[in-house]
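[Discussion] Sanity-checking designs against the backbone

I'm trying to build intuition for which residues belong where. Below is a structure token string of 342 positions. I'd appreciate it if someone posts a full sequence so I can compare it with mine line by line.
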């Protein structure tokens, strides 16, 4: 018999309804309580989930004996105090990305989590897509050869966030995917951004990462684009991948393309010959399931079995460490920042 997991949700704004819908659909899971300060959003939550208690008092969720797992879908600035209180109250926690604003906060949450034997997971939803799972499989099999670069564009018009800039809002998607696929940390981070029209936060940015050994990565992020683009190119010595999340059917395309370098004389670069290798393109079959639904199933299994989630606190810390370094780089006009604590 499946162990019943009681769930509480904090925040019923933009992302909270998606969490509520997916967790309420999971077998062996019951949405017991929703905490929301906005009167209008609270009333909507009550109409949508009449079986759940709706409150504005977070302490009610912390003291609710039936709640095993707390879902936090609030502005980033509230992640740390809410998650800390939940872990200390003996709850397992799923936090919307990014985990925290600072490395110090993320490290403290991990410490509390480990000391209290709790489950801490970050909502890096893209890791649970069929596309990213397939790319992980292809890389693990060595089909791409040595990874040379990752190049990503994630741009759209809005949504402007009041408490974080575009890097903190959009980059966690790409950084979590990169960390999951490569399982290594960059050595250096550079970032440049801009803000216009009296906007308080940078709304467009370019993020560049370099590794001690391995690929380079470059991310273009923007809230100020007339079109929405979600495209990543991963180049290897053997094959290359184009991942377009907006494609309806062929989100992942694997190209058997590359170059063959023949150096006739290593001392004379002008004698180096480059040949182009062009083979087939395949679009592998992907699992078609809402990623958040898979993620909900995953953390519920982790709660029942007391196992470590794919996107645990340390995966969240890896992302926050890069974000913090990127912020420092941007504030210093794009200076390279060495990544500490890897």
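Best answer:
Here's mine. Compare freely.
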């Amino acid at each position: 018999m499946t162990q019943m997991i009681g769930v509480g949700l904090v925040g019923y704004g933009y992302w909270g309804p998606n969490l509520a819908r997916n967790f309420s659909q999971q077998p062996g899971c019951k949405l017991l309580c929703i905490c929301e300060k906005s009167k209008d959003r609270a009333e909507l939550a009550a109409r949508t989930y009449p079986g759940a208690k709706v409150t504005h008092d977070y302490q009610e969720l912390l003291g609710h004996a039936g709640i095993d797992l707390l879902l936090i879908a609030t502005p980033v600035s509230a992640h740390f105090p809410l998650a800390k209180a939940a872990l200390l109250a003996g709850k397992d926690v799923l936090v919307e990305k990014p985990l925290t604003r600072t490395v110090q906060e993320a490290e403290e949450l991990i410490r509390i989590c480990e000391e209290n034997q709790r489950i801490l997971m970050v909502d890096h939803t893209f890791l649970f897509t069929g596309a990213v799972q397939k790319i992980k499989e292809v890389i693990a099999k060595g089909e791409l050869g040595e990874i040379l670069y990752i190049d990503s564009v994630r741009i759209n018009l809005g949504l402007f966030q009041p408490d974080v800039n575009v890097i903190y809002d959009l980059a966690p998607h790409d950084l979590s995917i990169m960390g999951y696929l490569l399982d290594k940390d960059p050595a250096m981070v550079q970032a440049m951004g801009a803000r216009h029209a009296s906007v308080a936060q940078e709304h467009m940015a370019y993020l560049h990462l370099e590794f001690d050994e391995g690929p380079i990565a470059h991310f273009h992020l923007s809230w100020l684009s007339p079109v929405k683009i979600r495209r990543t190119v991963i180049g290897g010595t053997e094959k290359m991948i184009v991942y377009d999340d907006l494609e309806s059917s062929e989100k992942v395309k694997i190209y058997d393309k590359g170059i063959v370098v023949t150096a006739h004389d290593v001392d004379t670069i002008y004698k180096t010959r480059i040949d182009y290798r062009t083979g087939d393109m395949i679009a592998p079959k992907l699992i078609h399931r809402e990623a958040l639904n898979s993620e909900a199933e995953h953390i519920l299994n982790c709660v029942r079995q007391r196992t470590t989630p794919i996107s645990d606190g340390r995966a969240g810390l890896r992302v926050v460490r890069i974000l913090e370094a990127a912020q420092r780089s941007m504030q210093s006009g794009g200076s390279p920042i060495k990544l500490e604590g890897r």
